[in-house]
Task: inverse folding
């Protein structure tokens, strides 16, 4: 009984080369598939996207482990994925052009305070999702945003509108008038 348990847990039913090659093939497929799916899939997940990613991992599980359910097979598969990912990231660090080809480029969603609806449509982001992302970064509304950029990793960076020199001067004068009014009222 103990011998059978030990055998089932640690002995591979597939050749080790196949155990290494399977995760590499699945890794490459998933990188290409997620790249084609767009930036939104990576960070701006709605419940549907989350379900797809979870079922995707389950769908490729057997492709990675094959007919082998041993602990050794699982460790080899997981270790292969980690090593391949480390090597790819390390390689891409020194090759910026290839990195940009694989990860993609940033996309401007708001420019000079104007929402670029064609870019939102292209990235499958609706206005409510954009507003929600702005709220998470402390903006009360999109009216406060000068520029928004969707990064290759899926995060959205928002930049606040800066007041014009005339607006800043006007605000400064109004604050001074309020302060003087309060002092005059205190003297009365």
Result:
């Amino acid at each position: 009984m103990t011998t059978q348990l030990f055998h089932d847990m640690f002995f591979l039913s597939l050749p080790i080369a196949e155990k290494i090659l399977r995760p590499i093939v699945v890794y490459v497929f998933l990188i290409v598939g997620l790249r084609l799916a767009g930036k939104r899939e990576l960070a701006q997940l709605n419940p549907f996207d989350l379900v797809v990613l979870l079922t995707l991992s389950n769908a490729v599980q057997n492709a990675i482990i094959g007919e082998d359910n041993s602990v050794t097979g699982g460790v080899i598969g997981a270790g292969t994925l980690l090593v391949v990912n480390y090597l790819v990231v390390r390689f891409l660090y020194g090759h910026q052009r290839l990195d940009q080809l694989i990860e993609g480029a940033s996309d401007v969603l708001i420019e000079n305070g104007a929402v670029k609806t064609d870019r939102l449509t292209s990235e499958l982001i609706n206005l409510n999702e954009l507003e929600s992302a702005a709220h998470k970064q402390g903006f009360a509304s999109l009216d406060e945003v000068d520029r928004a950029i969707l990064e290759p990793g899926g995060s959205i960076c928002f930049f606040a509108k800066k007041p014009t020199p005339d607006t800043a001067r006007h605000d400064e004068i109004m604050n001074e008038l309020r302060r003087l009014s309060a002092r005059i009222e205190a003297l009365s």
About this structure: The mean pLDDT is 82.
